[in-house]
Amino acid sequence: MFSHVTLGTNDWQRARPFWIAVMDVLGHPVMFERDGEIAFGLPTGPKTFIGPPFDGHEARAGNGVHIAYLLPDRATVDAFHAAALAHGGSDEGAPGLRAHYHPNYYGAYVRDPDGNKLQAVCHSANG
């Protein structure tokens, strides 16, 4: 559905270990890394870019904005949440069912070190 998302950071040294750990759990490889920015994914598929804002101004998390990563099983949702918290992220909703979306909706929410809201979700009953 999307080509890529880009999130800003104000502290590369703090953001980098968080994103390396989380993307490793999600199975998204480093596509490239240079001068305080990194891209995850494959050249012909969806990607996530992390770096300083292009305009040179301070990065700010969007209120009401979050990115949800689709995962094949609930164990990976749990691992995403644990990796995020272990690498400077904060909890925005522990892993669990959210049946108000649908009976098999299993998700977890975190914020990265810059305050961007992220989610991991599995829609499978077999997760």
Strand order of the largest sheet: 1-4-3-2
CATH topology: 2,3-Dihydroxybiphenyl 1,2-Dioxygenase, domain 1
Give me the Rg, rounded: 14 Å
Q: Secondary-structure element order, as H and E?
A: EHEEEEHEEE
Instruction: Give the mean pLDDT.
Output: 95
Oligomer: single chain
Q: Can you tell me the residue ranges where pLDDT is under 50 for at least 5 consecutive residues?
A: none
Total domain units: 1
Compute the number of helices: 2
Give the proportion of residues in helices.
Answer: 10-25%
Count of individual beta strands: 8
Strand content: 35-45%
The CATH architecture is Roll
Main beta-sheet annotation: 4 strands, mixed
The CATH superfamily is known as 2,3-Dihydroxybiphenyl 1,2-Dioxygenase, domain 1
Question: In short, what is this structure?
Answer:
With 127 residues, the protein is an alpha/beta fold. It contains 2 helices and 8 strands. Strand 6 and strand 7 form a beta hairpin.
Please render the helix and strand layout as text.
Blueprint: E1 4-8, H1 12-26, E2 30-34, E3 37-41, E4 47-51, E5 66-70, H2 74-86, E6 90-97, E7 106-111, E8 117-122
Tell me what the structure shows.
The mean pLDDT is 95. The longest helix has 15 residues, at 12-26. α1 (12-26) runs antiparallel to α2 (74-86). The chain has helices spanning 12-26, 74-86; strands spanning 4-8, 30-34, 37-41, 47-51, 66-70, 90-97, 106-111, 117-122. It has one domain: 2,3-Dihydroxybiphenyl 1,2-Dioxygenase, domain 1, CATH 3.10.180.10. Helix content is 22%, strand content 35%. A 4-stranded mixed sheet has the order 1-4-3-2, covered by helices on one side. The protein has a 4-stranded mixed sheet with strand order 5-8-7-6, with helices on one face. The protein is an alpha/beta fold.
